[in-house]
């Protein structure tokens, strides 16, 4: 890593900020803190962090509002960290431009994994992500060559299955919301036809050798969307660790 | 935009729209609520059976049905009441009703059925028409005319004594012969005086006038009597030979016979005119009474009021005691809920009949077909609404001097059915409001749950986060980091404990089981204890205490007031910026006999419209976990605890226009009590 990644924590609970700061610093991140939404937005402008951890329950304004304001002028990756566990809140945050969502309380490893995944993704953001190569165990997905193979054998996918898979690969490691997938693959009039997506995902799991009962590769975020396990091409992953 | 050309759908619509010409009515089924089954009601005893039969048939065929009544303008009050009841029953069973005007039932029915393309017509078969054997029944008339429908004739149920109208032949009243004789004598006097000037035929007109007078004053029977008397008198006094009933002249004989004929016909007509007038008047009276009754019931708002109004009004009208019986929770039998006049009791036989009526949903007791023993003085009428008995109305008819007439019987039925409907209305209303109340409770409960879960999770998030950092990242953490994380875990655990304490207090406050055990204590001790309990969570702020040394002692439950102070100071500290100042001031308000405690912070402050809401137990949805002033239950608990001591708590803008000041007032004990405690 050429420079330390800078993480901004926007949370009004001093105790939460404290353990996040200690943990992130110990992992080699730089940390700045803000206790209110307004302060957080100012810090983003001034210091240009590489990643933002955002609490939704802030004293001065709602986290969703902060997210809106932030997205108006910045593309910095945002992980929402909140006690709000309803799917509707998660979907709203993700649709508002959050890149991921972690529900409080959480173990530190879970958060660090999400942080790493997002920063890695950010590292590739400048490259052409349409031509990614995704590799996991015997599975290779080559977006440039338009090819998917499992243990050396070509996997035949329908156009819809490929379209869904392509979007998941591009956002590997992060949640892609159901409505986003439906909108982009089936069209804006089908954002509520989630059964289409269920069928395609179950076919994909079958074809890609994922266990449908305990899916590992293609995880379901109940009521929110889907997440493809973040193990990118060796070239890509080696840079951030 | 529309892919389908509009012409696609129009051809299919066309035949449906013009099928009026299609007399077979085969496509009638494609249009929804057109009745296919018509039932003709007459206001007679057979109607109930007819309505039930129509309902059964319509159910079986899955068609809609309609009840029709041909109004000839000659129905008496009793028939009207029966019809009203019939129509109500039809509506209850899901049919609709129509009333048409006309003179001949068969013709009108045929016309209506054709026009509305009715498939089946139900008519009743009245019991034998008796002496009027030459009259054809409605069914016979309809069969003779060609209709396009099936005709179903329904027999009257065999045993329905209650609904059988009593014969209209009433006892002869003394008034009738008196009027007849008086008017005949009057006519004799006038005719005697005029006989010098008038011919015999014209003299008979005088007697005819007497018949009319009798009919108008006393009805048909008086008129008939008057006609016969007139005939005899006329014959005796005026025809030759005079003073004899014998007649010699054929011309006179004809005059007398014509007189008798005309007198009988005119008397009949005039009598029936009078009868109609009387029927109309009594029908109007009954209608008005029913209207007044239903108005009184509709004004009553709740079940008890409707019941009491209905029973009282029945009693006034009936002139006999009326009782209302119902089931009550925890009581196996029926309970007399209300009586008019008050304090009436029912004997064992009446109570048995009441239970029977409840079970069988049928009237019983005096004047009914059920349990009408000789010594039974009560009639019990169940109020039935859709298979549910709302109660039993008991009428002590045995106390009445005169038995009920048919009009009165019908009136009782009408009033009872109105009472039933009114009670059902209030029952539905109260059910609705109960449902609304429980929905409101449900909403509050879920708001409380979400706020509590937020309050419990926030410290848990710090604890779990810190603990997992300690375990997972241990090699990379410095000793100082580890200490800090451990501190975090400890202080957040204490915070969690405070929340739980608050929750428990809140529940106890809510149940009213929090007992105030007062003791003398100084403010210094209370504040010191509160600060000690808050411990490290106050590290980031400066606490400034400011009050005079000679503050009077408080006479309060120390633990509760300490908890209130903990909550207020904790709130102030959490909303203060790092290094901010939290001020605690107190002063003795001797005029008001109370102690004023102010806690100020330099936090973001509370919007004016929120300053009262922060003391609410629940957070509104729009606020969510943001308004932590309110979500913590803490301030709500403070208000509860101060309230329990007769004190108060309000939120205000802080000094110099920033932050928040929480002002608490605690009443001090009366002056001499305070002094004694100092000794």
Summarize the structure in words:
Chain B: It is an enzyme of class 2 (transferase). The complex is a heterodimer of chains A (241) and B (679). Chain A has two domains: 6-125, Response regulator (Rossmann fold); 129-240, Arc Repressor Mutant, subunit A, CATH 1.10.10.10. In chain A, 42% of the residues lie in helices and 20% in strands. Chain A has nine helices and twelve strands. In chain A, strand 6 (133-136) and strand 7 (139-142) form a beta hairpin. In chain A, helix 2 runs parallel beside helix 3 and helix 6 packs across helix 8. With 679 residues, chain B is α/β, with parallel strands linked by helices. Among the domains of chain B are: 30-160, HUPs (Rossmann fold, 3-Layer(aba) Sandwich); 300-404, GAF domain (Beta-Lactamase, 2-Layer Sandwich), CATH 3.30.450.40; 514-678, Histidine kinase-like ATPase, C-terminal domain (Heat Shock Protein 90). Chain B has a five-stranded parallel β-sheet, sandwiched between helices. A five-stranded antiparallel β-sheet of chain B has the order 7-6-10-9-8. In chain B, strands 12-14-15-17-16 form a five-stranded mixed β-sheet, with helices on one face. In chain B, a hairpin with a 2-residue loop joins strand 9 and strand 10. In chain B, helix 6 runs parallel beside helix 8, helix 10 packs antiparallel against helix 12 and helix 12 (406-472) packs antiparallel against helix 13 (479-511). The chains are: A alpha/beta (241), B alpha/beta (679). Chains A and B meet through helix 1 and helix 5 of A and helix 12 and helix 13 of B.
Write the layout of secondary structure elements.
The complex is a heterodimer of chains A (241) and B (679).
Chain A: E1 6-10, H1 14-26, E2 30-34, H2 37-47, E3 51-54, H3 63-71, E4 78-82, H4 87-95, E5 100-103, H5 108-125, E6 133-136, E7 139-142, E8 147-150, E9 153-154, H6 159-170, E10 175-177, H7 178-186, H8 194-207, E11 218-221, E12 225-228, H9 234-240
Chain B: H1 10-17, E1 37-41, H2 47-61, E2 65-71, H3 77-92, E3 96-101, H4 105-115, E4 120-125, H5 138-144, E5 150-155, H6 175-194, H7 200-218, H8 220-238, H9 250-299, H10 303-318, E6 322-327, E7 334-340, H11 348-360, E8 364-365, E9 379-385, E10 388-395, H12 406-472, H13 479-511, E11 519-521, H14 523-534, E12 542-546, E13 554-556, H15 558-575, E14 581-589, E15 594-601, H16 628-631, H17 634-644, E16 648-653, E17 660-667, H18 671-678
Parallel strand pairs in B: 1-2, 1-4, 2-3, 4-5, 12-14
Antiparallel strand pairs in B: 6-7, 6-10, 8-9, 9-10, 11-13, 14-15, 15-17, 16-17
Helix pairs in contact in B: 2-3, 3-12, 4-5, 6-7, 6-8, 7-8, 7-9, 8-9, 9-10, 9-12, 10-12, 12-13, 13-17, 14-15, 15-17
